[in-house]
Amino acid sequence: MTRSGPTNSLVDVPGLRVGQHQRNGDGWLTGTTVVLTDREGAVGGVDVRGGAPGTRETDLLDPRNLVERVHAVCLCGGSAFGLAAADGVVRSRYAEGVGFGMGGPGEVVPIVPAAVIFDLGRGGDFGRFPDAGFGERAAAAASSAAPELGVAGAGTGARAAGLKGGVGSASEVLPDGTTVAALVVVNAVGSVVDVDDGTMYGAPFLLAADLPDTSSRAGRTGAPLLSPPRPAELEQARDGVLRAATGKSGGDSLATTIGVVATDAGLTKAQCARVAGSGHDGLARAIHPSHTMLDGDTLFALSSGRRPAPPPLFHGILTAAATVVTRAIVRGVLASRSVSTPAGTWPGYRDVFPSVLG
Q1: 236-292: pLDDT as tens digits
Q2: Are 203 and 228 in contact (CB under 8 A)?
Q3: Looking at 77-210, which runs of residues are DSSP E strands?
Q4: CA-closest candidate to residue 183, choices 171, 193, 201
Q5: Which of 21, 158, 176, 346 could hold 138 in an S-S bridge, CB 3.0 to 4.6 Å?
Q6: Could you tell me which residues come within 8 angstroms of residue 158 by beta carbon, excluding any fewer than 6 positions away?
Q7: Alpha-carbon torsion 238, 78, 143, 267, what sign?
Q8: Among residues 37, 39, 28, 50, which one has the least CA distance to residue 10?
Q9: Residues pairing with 191 in the sheet
Q10: Kindly report the CA angle at 83 between 80 and 85, in degrees rounded to 5?
Q11: What is the H or E stretch that residue 93 is in?
Q12: Can you give the pLDDT at residue 249?
């Protein structure tokens, strides 16, 4: 029987911590989410599928290249400008003496891959975007507690077609005790919602632990975890937010969904790249269309190596990687409530369809 880890989030993978920093108001609607490793770093991989990526240090993660371990991953708002947040994470890790050793004591270079979403102007001022200070503050806030979901960190300015996007996370513990988890910033040109009935594409993959605490359905054996919206809610949405989901009204601007998939199994760089690729299968289950020319969809994979190497096929880890990404996307959208700024209003899924949780 599938079960989540203790926090149902990325920090269920031992050795990883998550920190976030955001600004909302006075023209701002953006933020940064940072995943920190332990001092030894984590083996890393990446898979970039979108046609408009904004990234840093992804070539380094090619299995043919030298460095095996990374010391953080930075997920940022702000499009290309937001990559500056990674500089703050690098400085923070350097101050701790964490990085790729270059010789004497303290002579280290922190390896911090990064990816950005497009959220420029959503707070009302196109010139408000993360800088190195965002990365430093997010790194300083990192902890092993479950990260805040929804409108937080790099998900602060995110949207999913006409709905509010955000940060989501989920974990799964395999029968042998291996943990696989994901953290995703949901910011897509495509829709997370089937416009015919208002249900979320990824909903069939949910566990009871994935539902918000306010739901009465989690304890109802045999009941669907999410109900289809009531007809009146669906009809009203079809004239509003679901028009954007079909691309008929404002659904064609730049976007990008980014995230991290992690496991405590001991993997190589090549295996991490394969895990990141399987994570994209989960992204495609939850967002339609995905990997478009207007998205820079990018997933990193990390192996903390706290457990032994898996069998060569490592089928269970790959399957779980896809599933936790799907669940993380749905959880992020469920946790995101409506946001209004001078640039517009992005309603939360639960605000549009309150009946889905019973």
Answers
A1: 898 777 765 554 433 447 899 999 999 999 999 999 999 999 999 999 999 999 999
A2: no
A3: 100-101, 108-109, 114-116, 159-160, 163-164, 166-173, 179-186
A4: 171
A5: 21
A6: 77, 117, 119, 164, 165, 166, 167, 185, 186, 187, 336
A7: positive
A8: 37
A9: 288
A10: 140
A11: helix 85-95
A12: 37
Beta-carbon contacts of 243 under 8 Å, excluding residues fewer than 6 positions away, are 162, 249, 251
Long-range contacts made by residues 350-356, C-beta under 8 angstroms, separation at least 24?
Answer: 350/212, 352/163, 352/229, 352/233, 352/237, 352/240, 352/241, 353/198, 353/229, 353/230, 353/233, 353/234, 353/237, 354/233, 355/227, 355/229, 355/230, 355/233, 356/198, 356/199, 356/226, 356/227, 356/228, 356/229
- Could you tell me if 287 and 201 are in contact, meaning their C-beta atoms sit under 8 angstroms apart? yes
3-state secondary structure labels for all residues of 291-356: CCCCCCCEEEEEEEEEECCCCCCCHHHHHHHHHHHHHHHHHHHHHCCCEEECCEEECCHHHHCHHH
Q: Of residues 75 and 223, which shows the higher confidence score?
A: 75
343 burial level (CB within 10 Å; 0-12, 13-18, 19+): middle
Please identify which residue in the block is written with the tokens 């600004």. Answer: 23
- List of residues 6+ apart from 171 with CB closer than 8 A: 4, 5, 7, 8, 9, 10, 12, 13, 179, 180, 181, 182, 324
Whole-prediction pTM value?
A: 0.95
Amino acid making up residue 207 = L
> Tokens standing for 128?
């408000």
Phi, psi (degrees; rounded to nearest 5) at 345: -125, 135
User: Tokens 């332990």, residue?
Assistant: 38
